[in-house]
Amino acid sequence: MAKEQLEVLNALDVAKTQWYHFTAIIIAGMGFFTDAYDLFCISLVTKLLGRIYYHVEGAAKPGSLPPNVSAAVNGVALVGTLAGQLFFGWLGDKLGRKRVYGLTLMLMVLCSVCSGLSLGHDAKAVMSTLCFFRFWLGFGIGGDYPLSATIMSEYASKKTRGAFIAAVFAMQGFGILAGGIFAIIMSSVFEAKYSAPAYQVDPIASTIPQADYLWRIIVMVGALPAALTYYWRMKMPETARYTALVAKNAKQAASDMSKVLQVDIEAETQKIEKLDGQPASSFGLFSSKFLRRHGLHLLGTASTWFLLDIAFYSQNLFQKDIFSAIGWIPPAKTMNAVQEVYRIARAQTLIALCSTVPGYWFTVAFIDKIGRFAIQLMGFFFMTVFMFAIAIPYKHWTHSENRIGFVVMYSFTFFFANFGPNATTFVVPAEIFPARLRSTCHGISAASGKLGAIVGAFGFLYLAQNQDKAKADAGYPAGIGVRNSLIVLGVVNLLGLLFTFLVPESKGKSLEEMSGENEVEEQ
Fold it and tell me: Residues with Cβ < 8 Å from 189, sequence gap 6 or more?
């Protein structure tokens, strides 16, 4: 087998880091910014919605969303994301990355704004509207996963590709911080302007009527940064790899990249025709050839993402308990509605600042030095260790004098999720599949992850309930308890470590080398 590489692709592979790389990171990253902002804010908003719409006369504790409503509000966006990943992943390979890219962003902006508007005043109407628009918001966000990863991998040079794709994903960290900081500012403004007594003093007056505006403002502002990048998204040229290898238009690819890289690139029409006749450029997703070449790779990327997200999304369940246990968040009845938003936002922003955000940027810094495989293996290994270290002596951590140790262990688990599989499972599927199936395969891997997220967020909501039905949360059946749930999570991380061995290392190699698209059979 001889290797033939098109000049335009080679130019991208060896390009020095330039300004357009950074603009691409910002433009592609804004979808993830919105994604993280939205997922972050909904946990603040659900508490407030419970107080506003599910207040029970004479109850000792403030109103909270019934389990089925809470599951719907949180779950519907995840289901939407899963559907969007599959649909837009497939569409990105059919129509081209660029043509679909503006569509996902518009959908996110529109649905972010609409989820803050609700038709009607009663709880049912508000929740139904919120769920409807959150599904479509998730659908748009889902499309952004395969498209952003694929666009960034196809634009980047082979030396820095891992860092650039990881940087797009790391914009989630900024989304989380922005969500937290904005919620802190808005709740402080509302608290200063409309002060209210604590719930235990006056249950009715503790939730001010204006609080209904607070959650809407928080939810809607997430649309702003995404809307601002729409124009730039539309101006980005189609990636050269799609134009040359999938659309077979060498001239267009050369002229687009000549503008971007500011060098002259010749169009090699004959070379494209030569590559086009090769067996590597003709098999489909459901062919035995794909199965032979990439079947295990797809199983590897999909299973590791699935297992990671089970652990990653179930963490949110323990977050509330952890904050209450350390005393960062006082009991709900001692605060009014707006104070509660402020307290939760402050606690979550602190966790994000200390463990989540640094983890992402550690990956960006090291992924092209030590490679994807090593980072993913190390991440799963430490997540397993810290999960078991929290779970086995769980009784010990529940005593108030040990709570600082508990938070440290907990933070480390999330630091190693982000400096580990949370970032690498996003990077690798964008690098190891052929151009004409790249977006689809990334979408399948990401959707498999979202399936894990649904298992993590809901399976564990029921699993982690107390074994004694009387002590379980209102409306839930008895579960296996938090300690046993944590042990299950440790085992899930261990499985993730084992499945990592199916994923190939792509550090420093060109995309065509990884997918075999540059192989030409000797005549």
Answer: none
